[in-house]
């Protein structure tokens, strides 16, 4: 019995010694980790203050309508700004205030470059309202206003039932939404032939091409069928037809009016 107690006591002491060793190793490991972290923090701090990674160049890409100088100015980054201290979120927020900018990505490229990649909005149509012209994209977002409709590659929308149009805001209007849906459904080359759109209401949507053919389009439904038959008619009879009513197509045939039918 006495011998058994000695063995048990010996094993207990061995376990205790092992625990002491394990705790000591953990304390050493923790001390090493803390020391390494302190060295890293100190190194980063010294690097931050040294000027070795200050922003010396801002690269801008993806922009056509917004000048690079304007985007760089919105970054508000000075020559003594460390690349580490740059707030990409703040810079993105300032750049996105420009109505033309849809998305922006900011990247740090060490050691000295800040890269700004923008995605601009693309004008889809021009709205004529109150003696002014407003560029809008396919999200119904108003990009800018101007005194003249000087872009011949996109159609001008008239007779839109809206009171106020503000640059930098998205319009909510059923007639405009229907007109934009109609424009977006068109083949790009066919879209370029449309010069004017009357959008007083969705069911009265009318298109006018550069040959002055009036097209009563109606609601932007069955657009693939409507656009296909329109292009066929204009290709085969474009020089003679002056009016096309396609509102009910494909449920009923288009109604045509030709030049030779006019008294």
What would you note in describing this structure?
By secondary structure, the protein is α/β, with parallel strands linked by helices. It folds into two domains: 57-120, Roll (Ubiquitin-like (UB roll)), CATH 3.10.20.310; 125-261, Rossmann fold (3-Layer(aba) Sandwich), CATH 3.40.50.10960. It contains six helices and twelve strands. The strands form two sheets. Strands 6-5-4-7-8-9-10-11-12 form a nine-stranded mixed β-sheet, with helices on one face. A three-stranded mixed β-sheet has the order 1-3-2, with helices on one face. A hairpin with a 5-residue loop joins strand 5 (132-136) and strand 6. It is elongated, with a radius of gyration of 34 Å. It starts with a helix and ends in a 5-residue tail after the last strand. The model has no long low-confidence stretch (mean pLDDT 89).
